[in-house]
Amino acid sequence: FHFPCAILASNAYYLIPHPEIINSVELPKFVLCLGRWMHNVLFFLLSTSRNFSLHREAFVVNETPVFMNKPPPHVFKLMSLPSMIIKLTLGLLWCIIHLAISLLSLCSHLIFNLECSLISSGLLWKYRNLQLGRLKYLAIVVDSREAKNTVKINQLLYWLKTLGVKYVCLYDIDGVLKKLFAPGMNGSRDNNPGDYLDASANIKALDCCQKQMTIECISGSDGKEGIAKAANLLCSSYLNGDSYTQENVKSEENVKSEENVENEPVFTETDMASALKSIGCAGPEPDLLLVYGPARCHLGFPTWRLRYTEIMHMGPLKSMKYGAIVKAFHNYSKKHQNYGK
Amino acid sequence: MLDSLISHDPKVLTEKKPDEIIASGVVESLQNFLRKCIIAVLSYGPMPKHIAFIMDGNRRYAKSRSIKQGTGHSVGFAALMASLIYCYEMGVKYITVYAFSIDNFKRDPSEVKTLMELMEEKINELLENKNVINKVNCKINFWGILDMLPEPVRLAAQKLMASTAENTGLVFSVCMPYNSTSEIANAVTELCKERRDMMQGQQASGRNGRPANGGACSDISVSDLDRHMYTAGCPDPDIVIRTSGETRLSNFLLWQTTFSHLQNPDPLWPEFSWRHLVWAILQYQRAYPYIEQNKDLAKKQL
Predict the structure, then answer these.
(1) Closest in A93, A232, A294 to B220, CB measured
(2) Is A295–B290 a contact, with Cβ atoms under 8 angstroms apart?
(3) Which residue segment(s) compose the domain that A321 sits in?
(4) What are the C-alpha distances in Å from A327 to residues A142, A163, B100, B244?
(5) Buried b vs exposed e over B186-211: b needs ≥16 C-beta within 10 Å?
(6) Which residue of B has its CA nearest to A310?
(7) Are the Cβ atoms of A91 and B189 closer than 8 angstroms?
(8) Residues A1, A62: contact at Cβ < 8 Å?
(9) Beta strand A203-208 with A211-219: parallel, antiparallel or unpaired?
(10) Residue B56 belongs to a domain with what CATH number?
């Protein structure tokens, strides 16, 4: 009897208003999205009612409880006509709630856009003098599909340069940005070859308008896989018995291991950090992380660098605004960290 | 059910007239019915299976209400128990909370002592009032370097873990004292020990003339480390909620939150209530298609 539930569930995702609706600030595009969504709702209602009438005859009302205990309230057991109507009503209510939330967020998005244009034009006085003293390292997480938009990425980097950011770390989970900014591939795009200097494997220096900015590009393989490689390094050196004792004698936190050095491996956070450094996955810890994407997720940013980073969600890359970055920096300057104290 | 867990504040217990009690009973049952309706509507969409909470804001709450910090933490504990019940009603099977960080040992010793005493008191209360745990069939885990805790707290925690180990319902994990980076370092240590034992086993079998398998010689993979994390067996968190509007993760579940929806509502933790939870789930439902897309893409690449 789970089959009709499965149909409902599988069709329900058509009903979730596409996140594009909230970003379609132009009225015709919004109307088009809304029309498409309403068409999906109608299609869904027709198809589910058709499915239910088909399966109602072949279906036996099942009374035996699935669980021995009282099941949680969200499990539907009976499949008679009243319960179908109830389910459709619930579905409608759910759609209405989400539509209302989408409209609300559209309104707040419009207000935010207005604020950003005011900030860009310099009318809001409190954003005029940005104190970037505490912001030494900035990181940007981009959705991999949006990262292919090199025009937007370059514009973002240009804005950050004009704001005076000294070090930017670009991250995307699939490694698209790493490929775009790789050395030797700078002639065929919008980039000016003279702008990029080859500093190290991941790091480039962007020199323009007499403001030096270092760019680092990392990908998902520097996150979890980097930690796995570091673990491999530590493990193999322990099992081979050579440089393990050196690392433990150096780390101050690990007094016990001097007695157990022949028997038990004990790896501390400092051991992992130095192992990460030796395989080239270490870098400065960002103070601020800007997430460009439909949702606020860090998408696997390297663990050792994300510990105390402030994470701010900026929205999709294609609707990025200069004023939003200024606002984010301003909010960051207001933050106060205890570091656990 | 909650009264046994919430510390009795004398101001709360007042005399009530009989018709007031009836009226409050009617209002309460109406509220319960309304809650169940809203949960039924919400459940139509995707519901999270695992929610993680960073319970931030107890001290600020105490300061704003001009009460002692210890009382602020007690109110925070009451809010935790309430949230646990609400999550269970919503069908969330795994709940993880960040109770105490290894960095928090840097705090004022008297505050650390108060916190430890509070934890010991609450764990002992849970050990005595088994009916609460049995009602939700709760399995309680304590994740972290338990050796850093004072002896009575550690013993109580281990006792509670052992007594609820067989339960199959809600899984409630308390991270104390916990650091994501030390969890990873611990996983590497465990993995190394496992490999060393495997190698020693291979050497023993090699002496017997049997062929040795190449298992210990392969590189360490991400799934090897996953097996040795404290969270092995639990799915990754769907939502991470940090109250009081702070935007950082403070070294909490950094390995497991690759595709988790990070949320930071403004209310302080003692103010976190049912409507904030509903709002959190609504936000998750809006972000769900994007997150699932990313998860599928990541799986395809493996």
Answers:
(1) A232
(2) yes
(3) 131-184+201-226+271-334
(4) 19, 12, 32, 19
(5) bbbbbbbbebbeeeeebeeeeeeeee
(6) B248
(7) no
(8) yes
(9) antiparallel
(10) 3.40.1180.10
Give the number of domains in chain B: 1
Which residues, 6 or more positions from B2, have their beta carbon under 8 angstroms from its beta carbon?
A: B78, B81, B82, B85
Contacts of A143 in chain B (CB under 8 A): 294
Do A100 and A205 lie in a common domain? no
Q: Residue A149 and residue B261: Cα distance in Å, rounded?
A: 24
Residue A305: CATH number of its domain: 3.40.1180.10
Q: How many CA atoms lie within 13 A of A121 on its CB side?
A: 6
Residue of A227, A240, A287 to mutate, testing the B interface (most B Cβ within 10 Å of its Cβ): A227
Q: Which residues of A131-145 are buried (b: 16+ CB within 10 A; e: fewer)?
A: eeeebebbbbbbbbe
Is residue A82 in a domain?
A: no
Q: From chain B, pick out residues whose CB is under 8 angstroms from the CB of A225.
A: 222
Could you list the pLDDT tens digit for every one of the 302 residues in chain B? 444 444 444 433 345 566 667 777 888 889 889 999 999 999 988 999 999 999 988 989 999 988 888 888 889 999 998 999 899 999 999 999 999 999 888 888 998 998 899 989 988 888 888 777 887 788 999 999 999 899 999 999 999 999 898 888 899 999 989 999 999 999 999 998 888 888 888 888 766 654 444 444 678 888 889 999 999 889 999 999 999 989 999 999 999 999 999 999 999 999 999 999 999 999 999 999 999 999 998 888 87
**Structural domains of chain A, count:** 2
B226 annotated active-site: no
Closest CB to B257 among A94, A298, A307: A298
Residues A308 and A280 in one domain: yes
Q: Give a yes or no: residue B24 inside a domain.
A: no
ipTM: 0.84
Q: Is residue B189 part of a domain?
A: no
Q: Identify whether B35 is part of a domain.
A: no
**Which tokens hold the place of B41?**
């509507």
Q: Which of A144, A239, A300 sits opposite B199 (nearest CB)?
A: A239
**Residue B88 corresponds to which tokens in the numbers above?**
């269970």
A183 preceded by cis ω (within 30°)?
Answer: no
Residue A315 lies in a domain: yes
Which range of residues forms the domain containing residue B110?
Answer: 46-179+237-300
Are B282 and A13 in contact (CB < 8 Å)?
no
